[in-house]
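Researcher: Structure for this, please.
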Amino acid sequence: MTDGLMLSSNRGNKMNDSIERSDLAGYACTSATSRGRKHSEELRDNRPAFERDRDRIIHCAAFRRLEYKTQVFVNHEGDYYRTRLTHSLEVAQIGRAIARKLHLNEELTEALALSHDLGHTPFGHTGEDVLNRLMKGFGGFEHNMQSFRVVEELEERYPGFNGLNLTWEVREGIIKHSTPYDAASEIMAEFLPGTVPSIEGQIINYADEIAYNNHDIDDGLKSGYITLDKLEKVDLWHEVCSGVRKKYPTIDNRRLVYQTISALIGLLISDICVTTSANITGLGITSLDDLRRVNLAVVHFNEDITGRSMALKQFLFKNLYRHYKVDKMRVKAEIFITRLFETYLRYPNLLPPKYQSRLELFGLHRVVCDYIAGMTDRFALDEYKRLFEPYERV
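Model: Predicted structure, token format:
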């Protein structure tokens, strides 16, 4: 195809199916069977539909801003630590590995992984909790719903419509990321309410968990907030770490950590694939229609790994996410966001013109919420200084 040739599409082009992997399982999503896009477009090439969606997500402004949004540590606390951007890339890598082993659509899985945190606030889950409190009575705030709002409305890149005009399958996966039943009924009505998402969509919950559990360990050890001695008391870590030590008796602690994390990720991916394959076979699922009919989540760890993984999560919650130094930053972040929110409500003329133009359509509270949710940690801190430090240039 030449760049000048335009393809009209309101559904996945059947010609795209031949470009996708030939060994996809019958229950995998494909471009040829996609329910299509909300808005008709003239497309410049014949990339598979989900590959196009992935590329649109990578090029959008909200994705770039993830580089300066908190995972655990605020950006200015060190260049080493994960951000929402590097976390999203790691989720995508793990998701693709699972999808390939299960003969699922890797591009759809990757698109969902890269988009799952687009709606996240500055300062991580603290920002989400604060905005949800401040939006009480005005629709609340939840970052998965905000990710959907980003790709549906807030990105402004294309003539004729707002949002990224992603395929139905990607939009369904975003809105059903945590659970199929959380979204408002008027939004969910388009996405088979009460039914589980595609298997590619189900993968993301676990790819997300595998990524943040293991890589937060790395960041926690680097910060000194958790130690190897404490980690050794966690059964799952101890088992995998002991195996690495046995294989490499003279390994130093730094390399031990990297190799243990790598081995643990491999173990969890393998377990997900084995368990999911058994579930699919046991339920007689051979097509996407079968999955919707059975309407059960088929992607999960086996019972043993589920319990041991939960113990690891509880360890991280107690020793890292609730470490007193992390809590200090959490308190500061709550003050920053609350004061910014209340100031914009009182003085909406301080909002950028683009946001002021949305006030009549969405209302003051939602527009202020959108503006703050889209901020990076760095921008929020700079805006706080511009507004409240008298000698700071505006």
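Researcher: Any notable elements?
Model: The radius of gyration is 22 Å. Confidence is low (pLDDT under 50) at residues 1-18.
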